[in-house]
């Protein structure tokens, strides 16, 4: 098995840990949803970029910053982010098992957020926890 890019496997695992922690925080504290989602995306993006997973990392970083700047359109930004991440994971993951499952989950969540934005905190919290667990278990196989 190849080591993660730059010999820094800890950053790939860190992305999964960040996702799980922020997923739990979002479920526990939905009133500060904008800040939690923005911070999760920025930290996850930086971690992914350092790990050498550039496209998802840059996408996360950019959307995290945009969420801090435009918090009133959070639902739309998060929905677009999930759909773009789903497509990125599907196409860069080579349609492998974990990438396929993760991509489909993110795509469905993105569509649901567009249709029913009032449940964004539950969907985002659950999505981050699932993605964090999948990332911890299979980071080296995604990209």
Descriptive keywords:
143 residues, mainly alpha
Question: What does this entry show, briefly?
Answer:
The protein is mostly helical. It is built from six helices and no strands.
Describe the structure.
This protein is an all-alpha fold and 143 residues long. It has one domain. 81% of the residues lie in helices and 0% in strands. It contains 6 helices and no strands. It is globular and about 35 Å long.
Q: Give the uncertain stretches in residue-range form.
A: 1-8
Q: Secondary-structure element sequence?
A: HHHHHH
Mean pLDDT across every amino acid position: 81
Q: Which overall shape is indicated by the principal axes computed on the Cα atoms?
A: globular
Oligomer: single chain
The main β sheet shows up as: none
**Radius of gyration in whole Å, from Cα?**
14 Å
Distance between the termini: 13 Å
List how many beta strands DSSP finds: 0
**Structural class, from helix and strand content?**
mainly alpha
In total, the number of domains comes to: 1
Which strand-content bin applies to the residues? under 5%
Task: Give the % helix.
Answer: over 70%
Total of helices: 6
Topology, pairings included?
Blueprint: H1 9-28, H2 33-51, H3 54-69, H4 74-92, H5 97-115, H6 120-142
């Amino acid at each position: 098995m190849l080591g993660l890019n730059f010999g820094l496997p800890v950053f790939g695992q860190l992305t999964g840990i960040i996702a799980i922690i922020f997923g739990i925080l979002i479920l526990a504290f939905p009133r500060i949803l904008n800040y939690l989602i923005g911070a999760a995306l920025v930290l996850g993006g930086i971690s992914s970029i350092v790990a050498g997973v550039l496209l998802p990392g840059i996408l996360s970083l950019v959307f995290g910053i945009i969420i801090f700047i435009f918090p009133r359109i959070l639902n739309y930004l998060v929905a677009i982010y999930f759909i773009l991440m789903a497509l990125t994971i599907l196409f860069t993951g080579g349609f492998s098992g974990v990438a396929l499952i993760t991509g489909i989950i993110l795509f469905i969540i993105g569509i649901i957020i567009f249709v029913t934005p009032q449940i964004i905190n539950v969907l985002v919290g659950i999505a981050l926890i699932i993605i964090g667990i999948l990332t911890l278990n299979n980071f080296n196989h995604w990209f």
